[in-house]
Write a structure and sequence with these properties.
The chain has 155 residues and is an alpha/beta fold. 44% of the residues lie in helices and 14% in strands. It is globular. It starts with 6 loop residues before the first strand and ends with a helix.
């Protein structure tokens, strides 16, 4: 990813969370991965001013208590949270889920491939996209230096 801030993963399934963690490690993504099991836990994390805000949110849709769509409705209505890019990682192929989440300003919708190699490739593309994407100036923190350091670490 572009900077050192954490990646927030909303995923209730332990195996899926471990797969994301393994793929990011394989891709040499150095950002800390913070995992929460549902939208309620994510809002508690994001509301804690002592915790660093993530550079990106990766979220599943089907979770207990507060699902991904319910989380997005709250997060995207919050001035402090709405600019944090969110990418859906889900097994859902439902067109309504896709439409609803894009209406809530998600940055991407990825159907999780079952095959691990294909999953790593999907995560590589997500990582590349966020490494190359330009954030609004008010949210950039020495991006050129961090991008250069991140690129050097990958070699």
């Amino acid at each position: 990813m572009r900077d050192c801030r954490p990646i927030l993963l909303l995923e209730d399934d332990t195996v899926d969370a471990m797969t994301v963690k393994r793929a990011l490690k394989e891709l040499h993504v150095l950002n800390p991965l913070v995992r929460v099991a549902n939208g309620e836990e994510a809002l508690v994390y994001l509301g804690d001013d002592s915790k660093e805000k993530p550079c990106v949110i990766l979220l599943d849709l089907n979770m207990p208590k507060m699902n991904g769509i319910e989380f997005l409705k709250v997060a995207k209505a919050d001035e402090k949270l709405k600019r944090i890019p969110a990418i859906v990682l889900t097994t859902s192929k439902d067109d309504q889920d896709r439409l609803t989440t894009f209406q809530l300003s998600i940055a991407g919708f990825v159907v999780k491939p079952v095959d691990y190699v294909k999953f790593v490739e999907a995560m590589r593309i997500v990582n590349l996209y966020w490494t190359l994407s330009e954030l609004p100036n008010s949210e950039q923190e020495s991006t050129n230096e961090k991008l250069q350091a991140n690129t050097a670490d990958r070699r």
